[in-house]
Amino acid sequence: MAGNIWNLGFFPNLVLISVFIGLGAGFISHSLFSKKTSDVLFDLTAPAVCLFVFLIYIVSPGVPGFGQEAASFGGVGHEEVFFSAGIGKESVRESIFLFPFWFLFPAAVFFLIAQRTAKVFMKMKPLAAYSFDILGSCFGIAAFICISFFEINAGVWFLICIPIFLMAKSPDSSARKTATAIIAVSMLVASFQVFYEDRQYDDKVMASVWSPYQKVDMDVNLKVYVNKIDHQEIRDNAPDISLYGLVHVVRREKSLPHYKRVLVIGAGTGNDVSSALYFGAEEVTAVEIDPVIARLVKHHPTVPYYPYSSQKVDLVIDDGRHFMTATDKKYDLIVFALTDSLVKQSSLSQIRLESYLFTQQSFSHAWSLLEEGGTLMAVNFYREPWIPWKIGEMMKKVSGTVPVLHFPIRSVKHHDLVTETIVLAGKTSEGTSCIEISSKMTCLDLVSFEKFLGKSKDLPLPSDDWPFLYIAEKHLPSIYIYAMLFILAFVGLLLGLLRAVQAWAPRAQGMSLPMPRASVCVAFLLMGAAFLLLETKSIIQFSLLFGNTWLNSSLVFLAVLVLVLAANWVAAIIKSDKLVPAAFFLLLLSCLPALVIPTDTLLAVDNVPMRFVFASIVTFLPIFFANMVFSSIFRKQKFHEIYFGWNLVGAVGGGMLEYTSILVGYQFLALIVLSIYAVVFALYYLRIAPGFASETPTPEAGQ
């Protein structure tokens, strides 16, 4: 969806929230549908997917809140900056009206799947059903890894869905042949739509590839588009007059030796690499996280200059922060290039791909990799003046020197900084003292720059616990608040409606059926929220320690699911009711290290296997014990499929609570998790444990 919905790459959690709403609602309400009706609804899933794909291509929706200015969002561009592109005035209005459509449509699709799944779920014992569900998720993660590794086009994804849908169909469906034909044709049409659009949306596109992170296109003008947004380009102008060559020109004008060993983080289309080679670099290490962007530049026949093909260049596909942690080389120049991703690290967090590059700890490590006389450089079109100020202040803290900033003279005249800016800090004052090298550019040291701004000194600096360079202050941007209120209101109304219908429907038929207890529903709702926060924290911790790459995130997801299976196995073996309080107690103990030990402390462990062991203990033990709490309570529930639905809806609340990291940082999430489980513990002893025997299975509607 992010490849075709404007700026959705910045908010992938919206899709995840929509999916959880649909899944939860399907499980909770399945008893309202007879088996025949349920089969028909499931058979409608494939046509619904096909219709959704078609409509997305037709209407080209966007995330509401973005204005005509490239960086503005919700009219409050000073709150958070996005490196996106502006949209037309009409599109601004249309995006607001189209938002409910593309937000709720995935929920509807997954509702159709979930209500059918719930009927299979209820026929099995609770832990067996849950284990099969987790095994399916494991296969899904494995499939994603294969699709990402081989960079398979999105059109193929729909073809893969055909046998999955057919195997999941009810074997005794009254219209099996018709349903089979509908499923196959729908997925084929959806696949064709994707393949066709990938080649037709712009006649100038030479290459269109789905990378593990995003959709990447290159046009005949050597511009690179990410999710249809202009992202990078290959510059062919002389490096000594370009933005990328300025640091080298400064060096030359001061009659200092050229930089021999250069590290470029976020090398992208190779402009910084080309400039380094042009000015005499003898060895350039180019680190780029997206393999597709690097390969398009390296191997495409129309690229006029091949920086990545030079014998002097070592191209590394890796996360920049992880590379700096792993390398023992020293460099004369380290460049934080235009690392402005258009996607988040995962659907669970607010972390962008480059977030951990721009923290005080990251700059400190980069500084330690500089040779004597070396220079640290950050360059971008920062769009808001407080961003380069934050970078300069972090460089100042780690280096003990006063950085300088180069930016266009027109920025001084208009008192803004929306164009190119370079921040430099050097191990010698001669290397980075201000020098005027162009009639169009000016230079200020950080102290003078603060006077130029007049108001940035109170802004918080990013850290490994609060890695939000592009958010001005520690408060929620207003657009997030509006979105959360909308989603929470919608979910609250939906759950209230489902609960009311479940109570009314049997009475309307003259039946008196037991209802799932509200206290148990609330307990599973809270456990869903808490577990999603734990999962989010684990992804974030491992991203910092071992790299913010797609493969690392996928493996962590897989590890979490394996731990869930292990907890299920333990809960199935240990029948004692004492397992519940024991699991609560062990969960409390396992969360304490996360509260008192900063994650970046583990980066000091140079031995990678030992770091992995320590990180796994701190990260995965709370997940294991949290699922032991869940499984030991879940195994005795007779309305287990309905309570599982409440647990899925609870994950929506967890997604909302994750936004609190913008206020308090990620380490504090452990305290929120403990607080939620404390409420669950109280509910268990006061309301749940005494009443297990009072529940009876749910009869299916229409039987």
Could you outline the blueprint of secondary structure elements for this entry?
Elements: H1 13-29, H2 35-43, H3 45-59, H4 89-121, H5 126-149, H6 154-168, H7 176-200, E1 205-210, E2 215-219, E3 223-226, E4 229-233, H8 246-253, E5 261-265, H9 271-278, E6 283-288, H10 291-299, E7 313-317, H11 320-326, E8 331-336, H12 360-368, E9 370-381, H13 386-399, E10 404-408, H14 409-414, E11 420-426, H15 429-432, E12 441-445, H16 446-453, H17 478-508, H18 518-546, H19 550-573, H20 579-596, H21 608-634, H22 640-657, H23 661-664, H24 669-688
Parallel strand pairs: 5-6, 5-8, 6-7, 8-9
Antiparallel strand pairs: 1-2, 2-3, 3-4, 9-11, 10-11, 10-12
Provide an overview of this structure.
The protein is α/β, with parallel strands linked by helices and 703 residues long. Strands 7-6-5-8-9-11-10-12 form an eight-stranded mixed β-sheet, sandwiched between helices. A four-stranded antiparallel β-sheet has the order 1-2-3-4, sandwiched between helices. The longest helix is centred in the first third of the chain and has 33 residues, at 89-121. The chain is globular, with a radius of gyration of 27 Å. It is built from 24 helices and twelve strands. Among the domains are: 222-453, Vaccinia Virus protein VP39 (Rossmann fold, 3-Layer(aba) Sandwich), CATH 3.40.50; 514-703, Growth Hormone, Chain: A (Up-down Bundle), CATH 1.20.1250.
